[in-house]
Amino acid sequence: MAVSGESGMSLGACSVRFSVSAVSDVGTVRKVNEDSYLAQAPVFLVADGMGGHARGDAASQTVVRVFTEHIEPDSPSTPERILNAIHSSNDAVRALSAADDYGTAVSGTTLAGVAFVDTGDEIGFHWMVFNVGDSRVYAWDGSTLDQLSVDHSAVQEMVDAGFISAADAENHPERNVITRAIGADESVEADVWLLPAAGRHAFLICSDGLTKELSTVEMAAVVAAGENASGASVSEVLVAAALERGGRDNVTVVFLESAMDPGRTPREGA
Fold first, then answer.
1. The pTM is what?
2. How far, in Å, CA of 230 to CA of 42, rounded?
């Protein structure tokens, strides 16, 4: 399951252009792909259904459906609408579980992504980064990948507390235990960051099926190489590399580039 393409938005006196590629693969071990993605401006996201839990595939697909229903395509959204879509996703995923379900019987999914939003007359257009769980959002500056999201996981809490190092976390036996997920509780709290959208930006959004197999340095090397000689997209090459390493989990990648022209924005007046 792969998509790629370009699109744009007129923003009055300026415009923004998007180039995106997205791929999702079941991997070499799992029988069901519990990952889903949305790659339609203004929202680009990855949802990873909770492995070992009931209806993980339905949970991730539900998130995509709710965002599609809540967010108008090809137009800037707002932080309020994105947060509403996140909370509505939580309600919809919870509805997949019976009232007496508990533990691994509860449907759930991670959620990580970015949205192009208008934050108001005094602030303007921004990229809104959001995250629940351990799927990740990275920023690409042309040479390095910088993880913007913070994993909601047991090992990340140990790292933050100084009990283990980041390197130790990569192979820790509890590395798959997440502490926050869509559908796990009656309410959900997403981490959110706002980045000014002017100029050029690039983001890598992925499920942990990628980061389990490739280090950040290895992922950066693939992104730096760009499209390969066969014309495969960055997302396709990243997923192929994860499969070559074993593909022990579903793996999903969305790679997004944006360019906002330097013309006057509506905030600058006539």
1. 0.90
2. 29
Distance (Å, rounded) from C-alpha 52 to C-alpha 16? Answer: 41
- Statement: residue 81 has pLDDT above 90: yes
**Which position has the higher pLDDT, 130 or 263?**
130
Residue found by looking up tokens 């924005």 in the block: 265
- Rounded-to-integer distance, Cα 122 and Cα 151, Å: 31
Q: Is 251 helix (H, G, I), strand (E, B) or coil?
A: strand
Fold of 2-260: Phosphatase 2c; domain 1 (3.60.40)
Neighbours of 12 (CB within 10 A): 11
Rounded to whole angstroms, the Cα distance separating 58 from 62 reads 6
| pLDDT-based confidence at residue 19 (cuts at 50, 70, 90) | very high
**Could you give the C-alpha distances from 206 to 163, 190, 236, in angstroms and in order?**
26, 17, 12
Of the candidates 233, 201, 238, 236, the residue with the CA atom closest to the CA atom of residue 218: 238
Tell me the DSSP string of 52-105.
Answer: TSTTHHHHHHHHHHHHHHHS-TTS-B-HHHHHHHHHHHHHHHHTTS-TT--GGG
- 52 exposed, middle or buried (CB, 10 Å; 0-12, 13-18, 19+)? exposed
Beta strands in 150-250 (DSSP E): 191-196, 199-206
